Description:
about 280 residues; alpha+beta; Transcription Regulation, Sacy, Chain A; PTS-regulatory domain, PRD; 3 domains; 5 strands; BglG_antiterminators
Amino acid sequence: MVSEAFLIKKALNNNVVIAEHPAYEEVVLIGKGIGFKKKAGDRIDPQPVEKLFILVDKKEQEQYKQLISQVDERLVELMNDVIHHIAERFATPLNEHIHVALTDHIGFAIKRLEQGLEFKNPFLIETQALYEKEYQVAEEIVDMIRDRLGVQLPESEIGFIAMHIHSAITRRGLAEIKQHSQLILKLIQIVESSLHIKIDRKSISYLRLITHLRYAIERTVRGEEVSEPKGFADLLKSQYPVCYNLAWKLAKVMERTLESPVSKAEISYLTLHLQRLIN
């Protein structure tokens, strides 16, 4: 809890100020109305201020200061409420990069919409399944944008916003999350090609498969070993040779992409998911 007052160096707009603090040195403060009628030398007592965010990282500060000079101040004020809403819904501190990343993304999405452009989201169904709560909160954010700015973002944006939220609460880079999403899509394409099937993206078997792939990828990145009953792999290999060989193929693709070995037990469990998919 911040107890000492901040000393304002410069008010960038009604909702953002550059300030100094004994513990943090120079910081960027983001809060509803905190810059209103404020000038250099004024003090801000953090105690009565609700929805106050502090950018401490110098790189994030510079990126944010550049960003807010390029976006509508109404969006800056709205994003203050949006990020507070995310923090409350997940009851966890957020990676402060979300202030730059999500503000920039939504500002750009609104500009694209005004120009009649829309980015397709090839991973929308999967995002909804894999990050269910993040997707729900992203829907709430799209509603907030509609109510406050009169802009209705397309459904594709819900998925993009959900991934930004997941990045902020897990403190994993958005690039890593996107890489894993693209890897899952690649693996699914290999499954469809190898088995000569078209998977129903809304089926329970598909949702179970992509959920398994997500956690298998995360376990592989962490270097976790997975246990399995003795003789389990040999049993699956004899009973479901097509799915077992395909699971091996998928594991090799994962290893090349992630540059980490896949636990042998992952192949067994993946075989079961593939067999269920066929059935």
